[in-house]
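User: Run a structure prediction on this.
Assistant: Running it now.
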Amino acid sequence: MQDCYSSKVEKVAVYPGSFDPITWGHIDILKRSLCIFEKVIIAVNNTPSKKFLFSFDERVKMIKEVLNKEKINSRVEIKELKGLLVDFLKINNVKVVIRGLRVVSDFEYEFRMAWANKKLWKDIEMIYFFSSEKYTFLASTIVKEVANLGGDLSCFVPKYIEKYIKEKFKK
């Protein structure tokens, strides 16, 4: 067991995800994590085998817009995540990962992933934020489905992100 009293306090954390697209739920977790960490690295998944609605560059552009509009850009860095998360963490000299939990099924998935990552690198620490109540239902998949069916996206994403989504689903 690691002796946390004698080790340095982590001031940087990684927030990995696809952010396809970034939602109010992601923004909420990011803002709350910045209350604890001096810096957060958003690791945008760009694994070639995964299918994304938005390209890596489009997702980064949306995240940058959020950071600017929400005035949280000075303590956040955006980086590309290709391959294993533990390799990304080692390269960036970070041991702490931020994740959000909405529902029980998230817990099951995150529990398995946490232990798999711990097997790959014993020094990794996972910090989980429970979703704010108003975002417990929210997932990028839902946003895409509602957008595809022409629904109102305002409770899912900021207005300035909605334009990107609507452009993708123009018929």
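The mean pLDDT is 90.
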